[in-house]
Design brief:
single chain, about 260 residues, mainly alpha, MetI-like fold, about 80% helix
């Protein structure tokens, strides 16, 4: 038997296994139960417009504010990581290792309950919105810092040296020459980080949100419990996909464009 024929037989077997698995699932599934409990149109209709005006809106607010804080914090940590001042480097390295090593859930619990206990009477601006943004910012800053640091190191050293030879200070050369070029490199991975942050915003429910502050996961879970039906959870998942799929596609396009630019 030739190699080509063996390859065709193996490929045919793989397709056969896939088709058999699909047929088995279709045959064993309780389609009436799936329709009633997962794809109930009457239940889905009752979610609108609140799932958009409350759930999706709050999810976007938590994500955008957390991403903004994480981006600023990540840039500062990346600069500290590359600093010639040893305490700055130690602090940045410790922060990155700690916050990348801890589950995001623990950070949310700490921000929601630990800070008020450690600093009695202290309240973050914005209440729950501020707490969620702070938790997301603390987590994302650690990941963005390493991404931005890699982007800064990818800029040829000659760029900064040329700026210094023109009389620019080190800070001005970094601000006007190095950092803008670095961000062109790190935009695709930062877009991926935004997708991850959008999903991590679901952890805001552990802070203790009110009915008007619920994000998509909390909104879907509450309605599913009230109605004894999982359709709200499925609709909430679709709302997530409406944001994450276009963002993921954008990140892939940016990566492909960046690769073409390097050739």
């Amino acid at each position: 038997m030739t190699r080509r024929r063996r390859r065709r037989l193996v490929l045919g077997g793989e397709y056969g296994i896939f088709v058999a698995a699909v047929v088995l699932v279709v045959a064993l599934a309780d389609w009436h139960s799936l329709h009633v409990n997962f794809f109930n149109w009457s239940v889905a209709k009752g979610l609108f417009p609140d799932i958009i005006t409350v759930g999706l809106r709050n999810t976007v607010i938590y994500t955008v504010t957390g991403f903004a804080l994480g981006l600023v914090g990540g840039l500062l940590l990346a600069l500290m990581r590359l600093s010639s001042v040893l305490p700055y480097r130690w602090f940045a390295m410790a922060y990155i290792e700690v916050f990348r090593g801890l589950p995001a859930l623990l950070i949310f619990i700490f921000v929601g309950t630990g800070i008020p206990l450690a600093f009695p009477g202290t309240e973050l601006p914005g209440g729950v919105y501020g707490q969620a943004a702070a938790a997301l910012g603390l987590v994302s800053a650690a990941y963005m810092a390493e991404t931005i640091r890699a982007g800064l190191e990818a800029v040829p050293p000659g760029q900064a040296e040329a700026a210094r030879s023109l009389g620019m200070s080190r800070f001005r050369a970094m601000r006007t020459i190095v950092v803008p070029q670095a961000f062109r490199v790190v935009i695709p991975p930062l877009t991926n980080e935004l997708v991850l942050l959008f999903k991590d915003s679901s952890l805001a429910l552990f802070i203790g949100v009110s009915l008007t502050q619920r994000e998509l996961t909390k909104f879907g879970r509450d309605l599913a419990s009230q109605q004894g039906n999982t359709t709200p959870i499925l609709v909430a998942g679709l709302c997530y996909l409406l944001i994450t799929i276009p963002l993921g596609y954008l990140a892939r396009r940016l990566e492909a464009r960046q690769k073409r630019g390097r050739r």
